[in-house]
Write the structure tokens for this entry.
Amino acid sequence: MTSNVDPEEIAHFETLAARWWDLDGEMAALHAVNPPRLHYIQQHAGGATRTLKGKRVVDIGCGGGILTEALAEAGATALGIDLAAASIKIAAQHAGNRELAVDYRVVSAEALAEEQPGAFDLVCCLEMLEHVPDPAETVAAIATLVRPGGDVVFSTINRNPKSYALMIVGAEYLTGIVPRGTHDYAKFIRPSELARWARAAGLVPKNVTGLRYNPLLKSASLSERDLDVNYLMHCQKPELAPTPTPAP
Ligand code: SAH
């Protein structure tokens, strides 16, 4: 087990577990952003063919499996992990009801990294880093999980006055689109910080793209220019350098 977990965060998500698949409920924003974020993953981590078919993927902090199911539907062999057992139960039930082949486990990224280093072609970690005590440690575990030459996609929330106004004041207090207490401004992450942690873990940041959500229209889109609030980052783990042949 890892100490890189905030029990209050897990308790918060446990209380929301039954709500994961209510499209108009507390998770409506995650459902709305799911198609553009899946598109982003396919475009950036799907190789030349832009496909996830046959890729071994792990979704870190998967919650009820909103993204994990979409990854499986796109042809990936998907594993979702989360430390909120109630969410994993809902996720497994939901995929089971749809007869969708997805594996779910209650395990930390760090423990899975010890168990299966280099086992995944793609690691996704969306909207999770801003909920852990030491996100750089999670990034390092993710860098261990991905195989050399594989891909990582993160998403999180930028830290600036606009993201405070929209994500805390607007989303949690004025409109209640996001349940109060879901986010802590101090844990928001600037793209430069995430890129630094990724590089320190041996990953190479390749692209950063904004993810915009319009709560009135319940619509979402990618934006190359607007990284102010939510954003996605694609990184790659370099291929192993060829081992030099010993001199005769
Ligand atoms: N990735 C999903 C859910 C995001 S909500 C999506 O984007 O649709 C954040 C999730 O992170 C919750 O399910 C919460 O239980 C999980 N989480 C928080 N801290 C965690 C930790 N230390 N290890 C694993 N999961 C964690």
About this structure: The two ends are 47 Å apart (CA to CA).
